Amino acid sequence: MTERRFTLRSRWPVAFLLALSLLVTWTAGTAFAQFTSYYGKNRVKYDKFDWHIYTTDHFDIYYYPELEEHLERVASYAESAYQQVSADLRHDLAFSVPLIVFKTHSEFQQQNLIPGAIPEGVAAFAEPQRNRIVLPIDEPPDGLYRLITHELTHIFEFDIIPRSIIRNTVPLWVDEGLADFMAGVWRPIDLMTVRDIAIADIVPSMSEFQGYGGFASGRVVYNLGHAAFEFIEEEWGLEGVRQFMFALRRTAIGGGEDPYEEAFDLEAEEWDDAFKSYLDDRFEPFREKDRPADYGRDLAPDPLRSRYPVVYSLEASPSGEVIAALGVNRRDREADIVLLSSRTGDVILNLTEGFDQDFGFEYISQPGGLRWNTVPWMSWAPDGDQLVYMVRNGKGRSLAIQNVVTREVEALIDLDMVDEPESPDIAPDGRSVAFSALRNGVGDIYEIDLETREVTNLTNSPFADYAPFYSPDGQSIVHLSRVSGNDKLFRLDRSTGARTQLTFGTHDEAGGQFLDERTIVFASTAVDPAEALDPQTARDGEIFNIWTLDLENGALNQLTDTATGFVNPVVLAPDEDSEGQRIGFVTYFRGEYGLHTLELASDPLLEVNTADFGGPGPLIDFQAPLGHSLDVANVRRKGAFENMYMQGRPNFGLGMTSNGDLLGGTVISFADVLGDQLFNIQAYSVQTYRTYGASYVNRASRMQYAFQGISSEQYFYGLGAYFVPSIAFLSRDNAIATRRSDGGSAIGIYALDRFRRIELSAGMYSFRETFANEELQLQSDQFQLQQFGTTLFRNGAFMPFGTRFVQETTVFREYGPVAGNSVMAGYEYAPGMGGFLSRQTVEVDARYYQRLMENGVLAFRGRAFQSWGEFPDFTFFGGQGDMRGYDYLHFLGHKAFHGNVELRFPLVEAMATPIGILGGIRGTFFFNFGVAGIDGQPWNIWATDEVTVRPVTHYGTNPFTGNLEPIYGEPTTVSGFRLDRARAAYGFGLTTFAIGFPIHLDWSWPTLFNQEWENIVFATEAQQNGFIRGSDYFRKVRFQVWIGYDF
Q: Would 572 disulfide with which of 94, 240, 582, 680, CB 3.0-4.6 Å?
């Protein structure tokens, strides 16, 4: 996988969640909610792709017509990459590689192959189950070729080293390092991280290096791995690389010795030491260069004491006294824009405090490809009142205009006419914004008129253009173009459209700004052209430093000479004790980013001229090593169900009810190569009751649809005053009732946006509800016929039509919800025609989460259910997180409501144990309230009037009839507020994670808020359990253990 900063995480495999959510949604599947406590956000399929397949010697390239003009070069890149990787590893693949290409990253994010939303930081991925490569083609030609080479190397790795379904047997640095090594090119900011590690003497032991290693840059593991394979090649040649990979293979499948000893005849520790020495020697020439500390103190927020451990990008206010810094908010786990004092570094204000969705967008966008912070992310308006930046909003990006005084986002301008807009820069008159973007896979500079919202392509060149910034008079725009394999500065005359190349040579430039009317400041990897360097030092010395360029005479001045890399220069106001302008820039040292400054009054370190690096010449675009001629005979339309396969190993879920019943389920999924067509087979059980289901889901378009069939047997408890009160003394286990349902349904799901959707359904089911005890069923039917004129259990067929609105804005952490809300409102109508039973049902479930401090949460929930008609539906709930303090499925009725208020907070963040680091412990104070009733009967939720009641103390046998009859106590008068049919409880709970599942330990105290009333209501239970008063029995503490997710 090629990534920039983020990693993919998912609590539940997508197939398992999708399959079970269908069962929960369109059956009365109360027990299934143990697996699906949350409704989930949407992956919106904004586009419906008409997929075709083009076959080459080694690839099946999946594309759609909008990509056809790029198909030939994509095929040439892929076949060239295959020849290189195969030759270097002396290995061939016995299968054609599925190469799935998208035109842009926003379309790539709509893929259905892997679960969860793909962050912008993931540029492409390869997966080992079907050996598929998935990528957008929005990189410049040379970058796209290297991206394909990188991902194809993963496919070779998957083929050489089998992937375990139990654990990861291959360190990440091996997988990613070899992929970057085969791509064969160092980007300056990648090489920077390795040079930094070597110079700072913080090289980890690679034989023990796992994951991302805790570095601020997620690219470090890629880059260290790249350097490690260059070390192997230098010492043992490409054959050493191959031997190491096959030694890892033998270790993975069992029977192999230590891979370092087998491949290199060295113990792992000896190999680590040799690699450290190699890096020391390789980067020795750079040890005497400047450190960031040579440029004053770090103005970035303290990574240990503040919420902002890292700052990536800068923009200075027009006065230069304030810096807008984009960094990571440790508390919110999002990118935020904070205002800093340019003199002291103090945090003045967080412009995007809170979660991004509260501002009307999903997240702050980052530049595409691997440009990262070598290009600007934001721009300050000339009046100093507004800041503009790009945000993700739906399929594409929008230009956010935010007031820096009020923090209000004053406008979100959709830029859906282009793809992947980035690096906005406001014109000096404040009327327009220049930015770079893609159209038809080619990057250009665009301009939007803020009044008319008209967007104009300013460059319209065949080369990739990035990072525009206006001249002070607004007459021209300077920008980057990638030509002949390097990023160079060009100047665009806005009136004529003429472009002039400003910098030359085989080094790279990065984003910049104007210092004055004739001078720009920017970052560059240029070195003294008069100094002769050996090839290795020249390559390792591609270091971004801060330079200035005089546009009138071509004078170039080098201002810094760092050992690592400085980028993103901005113009700052003079310091208090000086009068000269200052330059601020982003630094990198010891694995951390910083913010340092220098005064322009100081003499430059080097003075040269642009002509010293060459002059204008032919602009050469990248060409693949091997050409390819498109053969239309190898093109065909993809079949809907072509190449179906089992999607990984079966997924499992586990839970335990608060009554100690184990529940579990599994899903086996089959999907086509694109993941658009999905077949699921589900099995689920609790106690001895089982449910089986099969479903088909079409996810190829925004309007997704599914068909499913189920055979389900569930249980509930038929106790209560409406079910033979004369035998209410029976235990719950003797009053088990079952619901058997068989049938199928059709479901349509339309995503309005990432957070909201509409669901429609139609189905046909047969139901049979009965007590397990036949005698109990007979008595219950007789009582209900006498009392209500009908039986309450349903037996027959229903044909329900339903609709639901779902909103899910909840922000999750590893322990559950932390902020946001979710709402589900549903209506179902089953007409009574043709022998079908009739009913109508309405259900609403609303939740709200208010974060307290960093990891505390105040959670609210209210759920209401109402069913009516000839044969109304039942709901049953209780125990678990629905109603703590009561038995599992304690409440049963045609209408119901329960509400919860919970305060959740961390007690122990993590636990170090002999078997490793386990999840922490969280505490919960809770209060819940619930009631259920029968259709047509009064709720009787609570009462306040004064009544006189004779409590039932026990039951006795009538000597004349032989029947059990209630024995009443003395009349008792009760007054004041009390719960009648409703129940409540409060208490405290502990939660921890074990083997991936949350385990809850709850101590609960039930209450009706009136002890005298409790003495009456629970007199029988008190007598049966040895208590004197009913309130003593009812209010005794209840300890319950259950496994499942909180609401």
A: 582
